[in-house]
Fold this protein.
Amino acid sequence: MDYIFILVGLSIAWLFMYKIKWLFGFGVSFLAILIYSILLFGLSFLLIGVNCGNPKMLVFLRMPIVSFVIFRVFYLLFKKIYKRDPENTAWVFEKRSIQDVIFSILFWLLGVALPFFLVI
């Protein structure tokens, strides 16, 4: 069960890899992901308070909100500077602009690895 908390905690990273378009807009997908992240954040505190599950693993449920906020900040900065959406460079094996590659690397370092080590 503990590994499921880690997989759920990495849900924003999964979206970044496979459905990055869902993270871009301010529409229904934005609200759904935001509500999902907030619910997981609150659920982690609730489950720790009730003493249900391993507290060291339950904190991984807090990762999606941190990753989502970091992604939105990076996305809004990228959009403001380059006037376009970043392209996903994870599954593309052709040359992409260096801005997209840097965006992806920064998100993986600060949006996935940093929250992962913060909750440990």
In short: The longest helix spans residues 28-50. Residues 23 and 30 are 6 Å apart (CA to CA).
